[in-house]
Amino acid sequence: MPSIAIQISGMRCMSCAGKVERIAATIAGVRLAQVDLMGQRLVLQLADDADFPVLATELDAALAAGGYTAQWLAHTYAVGHLSCAGCARKVEQQARRIAGVYTATVDVLGKRLNVQVANAEVLEQLESAEASIGYPLQLLGDVAVEPASPDASCDLAEQSAAAPASLLANAAAASAMAGQSAVATATAPLTSSLSASQRSATDKPAAAPPAVKPHVARDYPLWHVVAAFVLALPLLAPMLWSFVSPAPMEHWMLPPLWQLLLAAPVQFYLGARFYRGAFYALKSGTGSMDLLVAIGTSAAFGLSVYNGWFANISAMPALFFESASVVIAFVLLGKYLEEGVKQQTQSALSALAELQPQQVRVWRDGAWQWLALSQVALGDRVQVKPGERIALDGLVLAGESQVDEALISGESQPLHKTQGDLLVSGALNIDGVLEFLVQKRARESRLQQLISQVEQAQLSKAPLQQRVDRISSYFVPAVLVIALLTCVLTYLTTAQLEPAILHAVAVLVIACPCALGLATPAALVVGIGRAASFGILLKDAATLDALSRIDTVFFDKTGTVTLGTPTLARSHVLLDIAEGTALQWAASLQQHSEHPQAQAFLQANTQPLLAVQNYQVLPGLGVQATLPELSASHSFATLPDAAPAQPVYLALGSVRLAQRLQLDVPAELRDASSLLLQLVVPVDSAAQTPAAAGHARLLAAFWLDDALRPSAMPAVAALRQLGVQSVLLSGDLTSRVQSAAAQLGVCQWFAEQQPEQKLQQIEQAQQRGQHVAMVGDGINDAPALAKAEVGIALTTGTQVAAASSQVSLLHGDLALLVAAVEVSRHTRRVIWQNLGWAFGFNLLAIPAAALGYLTPALAGAAMAMSSVLVVSNALRLRRWSPTPLAQLRANTPQVVRDLFH
After folding, report:
1. Domains of the chain, with CATH numbers?
2. How far is it, in rounded angstroms, from Cα 28 to Cα 24?
3. Inter-CA distances, 232 with 107, 334, 410, 496, 825, Å
4. Which residues are catalytic?
5. Weakest mean pLDDT among 282-291, 522-531, 610-619
6. Dihedrals φ, ψ of 394, to 5°?
7. What is the DSSP letter of 562?
8. pTM, rounded to two decimals
9. How many CA atoms lie within 13 A of 355 on its CB side?
């Protein structure tokens, strides 16, 4: 009866402990649940037949519903001897048999195993279990970090608060600037206290050690391939020469002993890996390519030995050493080429990893020293010069420079960085020397988060791949049965053992489970990596699959198709007041507001701001305040009950505020963004009854314009060309949404939609059979983003929107949305091409081999090349590029004219 301990967060008292025990006890497969409150652990006694992944999934959901969270440990391993999709399937199956392993996913291209486990003890069981079936594991991702001093740790706790909390929510950095200023002030003395010698060291640091690229060991070394062909060629040459020579083939054959001496090293030394793989496959009760190759070549080799020494054949015996050796040589060649192609599929991750320098210039012992990245600690002072990349996230202490963050955040223009600003790892320092305080370890940096996100997406499996994996699990047993039937039927029809065995050998070696297993993951890895290189971050493979089927995209308006930075378009003054004066008053009312509309008034105003008192925000209506510098002597201040010396109350708000005050707003002003009002008494926003008529007067009206993103119109046009319908879904006023829809060429739009109404629109579209994506950037978009089949967030939006989405578009470029649809469809097309080739090859080649149309040598060569072809086809995705935005813009006017005329 296995026992598993799981860390639980959220337990605070014995009542919580009891609740967690009761929740766990309801899960099928749990015999006993006990909580260690001091250790924050849940200990489960499981039934012998418990399916732990299923149990863990149910437990996760039940605990979350009760307000608790199971803390699973995530680890990544490098897997040794992993050569094909069959190996990957065995590793996954072995891992999932271990109680305590929640998830196990193998990336066959990167040769990595990603697991979530209950505790560290499970890792030991996992490593032992995988080694027992021939796949040794090496834990990855642990970075040795020199601990910071206790004092530094305390300081950094405050400094870290200034850093962005999310990779995708760049907007969070703006709200953290207040914290940055405090940190900059606190750290300023560090800069000024540098001695002259230190300044000199700053200018002339030690030379950087030469970068050394790690050597990646191949499972199939080149010398193995060369040696196999060198030994196999003398065996194969006589057979090839016999096709052009009139002399009998026996004249060119080597003596049996020589053939044995050449074939044995190929079979038992260079081909030993296939025997090892076959042994572990049989031990684990699964099939693999190794098993097929080992059985097939052993049959040909064994038949040759029998004919040569035990069959009492007086003439030159029929030997087939060349078949066994050439099959092994071609399989080794195919695997060698396949490994090289697989490494190219990881180019996107490699490019990201290369953005992080492995050597860092650190201030240690009174001088600048080059240290390995793993030796840098929190609180260290790091220097970066022009042309160098920033290795770690940190806070600028000294210096000034332009920094290019395009590859990390998608920001198209270099950013000016000075004291107190945040730096992100992977960014390029352009023209100045910067010194910064390390705030995050390498594995916690923004760059590593980006790499991790791409890795997790590549490790995930699309629904189609899961179905193919199930088919592949029956492939090898089916091939073994077909080979056996081929041998028996051929012998019964010819009464000869040799052709029966050779036909069976050809069936075994022509079958290619590798091509079948690589068809989907190879394309997904390249497609997801290529998308990431253009700033399209996909959550997982299922997202890419869903995105390829999208036929309807719902857009939020403000901040999504528009820039989200309103500007003052026009104004209208009702009384005898200069427009500049009315704007001055409106801007003065907005000077303490953080609303985006406030910035529009402040930027448009050219006059000094007036002091305000009694400032109050009216939720959903606007703002109000008194302006002491204005007096009731103004000509417009002739309202009932207005005392001559009474301070002037002004309000700036929506049409709803005017209606609240029972003002009759002229029809031509009802679409105004904001109205400037004079009040006798302040508005009571909590009152349930409207104010008395005549206690307010309309002074001016203002119209704000939130310009469309430059990429919005061409993106909508391009989506239409791809057969994707665009719908505008906004909480803004009808007039503004209608205007934006007309500019975009969008026929269907919905205005004044609350979050729950947006959710209903998504649900109704799905009920009509539409495949829906939602693009948004605000908190009110989160429910719709979560409900849509694909939620797409702009990284210029909120963290809530990013957390609810499956796709993130860097720097808010809607052209990337078109690119995301294009790359998903292109990837899906390549997947189907690969699957068509893999299934078609096996469906045609296996019967041909069974009927004797293919020799074992030719069958081995064809099998070896088939998997290379599949991966090479996937590599075509590396040449994919999104449709240029300029081309989309050029196509837009005609599309819009066709739509409206």
Report:
1. 3-140 (3.30.70.100), 150-193+359-443 (2.70.150.10), 535-563+708-826 (3.40.50.1000), 569-705 (3.40.1110.10)
2. 9
3. 33, 16, 54, 26, 44
4. 556
5. 282-291
6. -165, -175
7. B
8. 0.62
9. 26
